[in-house]
Amino acid sequence: MKKKMGFRSIRSLIILGSFVIVSVICAIMLLVSSVLSREAFRTQVEADMQVLAQETSEKLVKDIQHTEAIIEELAANPMLTDDKYKWKEIADFFENRAKATGFNLFFTVKPDGKGINLTQGAETFDVSDTEYFKQSIQGKTFTSSIITDVVTGGKIIVVSTPYYEPGSSKIVGVFAGIMNTDFISHLCTDFKWGETGNIAVYDKDTNIVGHTKPEIVASGLNLVEKAKSDPEYASVAEFFKGQIDSNTNGIGTYNWFGNKRIGAVNIIEGREFVTLVAVNEAEVFKNMNDLQVKLILVIACLVVLGMLIMYFAFGIPFSRAFNNLEQTYYI
User: Fold this and answer.
1) Which of 142, 178, 257, 263 is in Cβ range 3.0-4.6 Å of 278 for a Cys bridge?
2) DSSP readout, 222-239?
3) Closest CA to 47 of 251, 246, 239
4) Which of 144, 129, 203 has the alpha carbon at shortest distance from 176?
């Protein structure tokens, strides 16, 4: 003879069944919403990073264009071509203008590549094999890639433009200015992205020219060369160099000293510079992960509350009714 299912058994089945059904439904809804919201949030973050990289690039281009405009204005000064000015007057004027405009110094170069500093010392040199001279002697205003100053060891750029014989289009030489690259790092520090986010500017040979942390620029970092000796740089070097080689702006992830980072690359068209915005993925999703944990706790509490309601509102009355029906049947 089979044992009859009692009051407690019916009640337990009702509670257990309800708990399983509600839990499965909630788990599926939570999983789907978590995946969809995470993808939507990631898409928005990547779009924001690309905008930030673009804005940094645009600001850098404007700063470079401003310095080029200064050089073009000074190149039109008659002191460069009029013999009535004494050297001391010329040197005083251009030394003062260098201080006022943020340049280290100005110099001129003859068509044969022989140059002279527009300073009281009037140092001479030969720059005939440099790219900025070759470009400007052909009539172009040009901003060089990053150069190491042989005197100070610091990183500099040279901005150059042709200057002409008065009243004609004949190029008589190249006028140029030397500027430290500090302004690029200052530009990078103007932008902030969380605690682990940073902005860096490299040339297309992956030499760093500006960074949120200027000391990294002072180290003379080259991503590709560093990756050859330090495996921690391999992932970022591969990602960054891949974007440069394909000549496309893009976003991706790479590993960096145990952290997975999201990076956005913007190649500055017409310039030799590339902007990289990066941040730890864990920081980006931290608030969302915390929110999901809280959501799980809330859902768990609601499920327990629902089970209690089911127990008292439905489980007990239903099981009593079932037992009464069963007792009536056996009578």
Assistant:
1) 263
2) BHHHHHHH-GGGHHHHHH
3) 251
4) 144
